[in-house]
Each structure stands twice: as C-alpha cells, then as structure tokens.
Design a protein that fits this description.
5% strand; mainly alpha
Length: 213
Amino acid sequence: MRPLLVVGMLALAACQPADSSKTPTGVAAKAMDEAANSLGDASQEMEKARQEIATARDKLALANLSLNRDTTQHLAKAEITPAGDLLIEGKRIATTPEQKALVLAYRHELLGVVGDGMAIGLEGARVGIDAAATALKGMLSGQSGDDIGKQAGEQAKAKLKPMVAQLCTRLPGLLTAQQALSAALPEFAPYATMDQSDVDDCGDEDGNGLWTF
C-alpha cells in the first residue's frame, strides 16, 4: 500500500476524539488495523525502490547524459558520453583535449546533482512511511492530531534538510562548469540553461534566505 494511502487511513482514525484510556472502535479501529498491516508492505516496497535506484545510479554513470532538459526550447538532441564526447543528433562534436576536459568536468558535476536528487526522492518516500508509523503510534497512545503532525514534520525536516542542503552546495560548481564549457564550446552554449537564480533559489522558495521546510 502507498504511504499516502496509509496516512489517509490514519487521518480518518484521527477524527475520533483522542482518549488514551479507550481503544479505537468501528471505522477508526479498522483503518488503524489496515494501516498497521500496510506499513510492513510499504517498507518492503521502499527496500525494492532503494535497490532499483542504486542500480539506476550505477547505470547512469555508464550512460549518455541528456542535455535536453528544457523541452520548450525544441533543441536538437544532445548528450554527453562517459568518455567526454558531446553528441548532437548522434554526431560527435570535434573537441580539443582542453574542451573535452571541460565536458568531463561538467558531466561529473551534473552526475553529482542528479545522484543527490535521486537520493532525496527516495528519502522523501521513506519519510512518508515513517510519518505513517509515527501517526499510528500517536493514535494508539492518545496523542492529538496537532502533536502527531508536529512530530512528523520535525522528523521530515531533520532527515530531508541536510540532503537538500548538500544538493544546493553542488549547484555553484555545476554552474561554474557549465559557464566554462559554454564559453569554450559554442555548440554546447544553447543547452546551458542554468543561471545564478537556480543557485540562489535552492532551498529558499520564499526568497528571504530562510529554509522553507
């Protein structure tokens, strides 16, 4: 069962007034029983997803990386190979050793950002399962919905904020590598869509320099 569905059933159970001296009954009891049974299945799904992502990361290191991230530009298909070749519509662009070194440097930075993004996605799903488990324990112990929500939010922040911060620290290096490659290899320039605002806005959606977790 998906974590969001588990959380939904726990929310239904939370509609009952909290009373630590009473065991939930009726629909609430049924929802909590199903949620408890589903948490084990969700944990197994998470382990499977972790293995799949690890495999995907290994394959990514040996695969061509697409540069067509902005679909609104309608640019020719462009890729960077593990060997540091820039391919446009499957044709290798001639490069000097210095240019190839810049292509490889950009690919290295991009792989780091992509890898962190995949890890954050996996951890986000894991946080959903942990939140469901926390909610279930809270219901059984008679905690209020507000207390359960606060606890789950603090857990999510503690786990995800450092991971997002790590990704954000990679962005200046990626931007620098992109700018250097764009200046040295004109064929790459149309695909250099990242700018300083991407660095400045990372983890700072409200624009005041504070984390929005």
